[in-house]
């Protein structure tokens, strides 16, 4: 299948350089494409789609009137990352997660960074995600953010930039794992020839990390899910199955004498570690939201007593805020005395008068984000919005400046995708997964999210995006 008509455009393309030459790490794949017909590629795509459906690789879209479940479209062409590029990315992510963990420990205890004025106190202490019941707590082994899914993009120069940190319940890793199995079947020989680093051991690494949080020799581990109607339920059940642990929801658990038990057919069994996939506010109706039907009454007291470990720790959301994100380079410098290896996207804080004035005057060219929104919601892409939408967001910012940030409109890098018209570039981001147990480890692969519509910059699955398998090469 030929790529002569491929348009790389003005942004950075990961397969072709600015002169139209194939980048070295894509050359083997290009040779494969040259030997493969268009019909064969579309057959491979059709098979991948069928396999996804058979595997149940679906997610729920709450606002979609056409039905609850959708397939996260997997594009058959992998994204390929050379080893040298990955090593820098890996070092930058380890540095960032280390600093954010120190930040969380500090803001819930001594609050030195706030007293020193490096991060504004009101930004943290006034955040809805700063959980007062967690003040004075140190989680098991001193780790707050056990599983992180950091979103990155490539700028026009091909440099990775951090787009946001996801420290609460980052999702998508099951799609990374299942997509790899599908794509390996599509290109078995090519996969071996390229020398692709494995990701299939993620469930083993995840289980080892969870077990590390307990001092028991054989701790009982469970995955806590809100239930089958949650958008990521496929992932919850998949990871529980792969790790060989129980999948539980709130009604399966109870607290007795500040210990947490599972109700089983053989009676009560104590559970020692929970991989928590429900939000903080729903975790315990006695401590947080009293109307929660998903949580377990008394589990937070059991947590404080040291009888249950939870990943991620309650309270991590305060470091996940889009306004706090702007301060992460200062956080890295403060705790580690290092310059960030990976840069943030330039960010304007509407809470600051100078930044707010700039945003209001230049909203047509900026991306405006609500600090507590996720999944592509609460967001304005200035160049693609109408004048009415610009004015609406100006008013929102004026009325509540602390809740908004703005960033330049990034072109995002493109990678080749299979479309009805042939192979065309589509914009992507990258979500690697970082585990923090005995050490910080970055899984050598990632969820690549792709904007399926030509020219679109919105990659979120809830907004119509798709995914790709991400090949990190040994060489």
Automatic annotation (TrEMBL):
It comes from the Bacteria. Gene3D superfamilies: 3.30.1490.270, 3.40.50.11290. InterPro entries: ATP-dep_Glu-Cys_Ligase-2, CP_ATPgrasp_2, UCP005522. Residues 78-451 form the Circularly permuted ATP-grasp type domain. Pfam families: CP_ATPgrasp_2 (PF14403). This is Circularly permuted type 2 ATP-grasp protein.
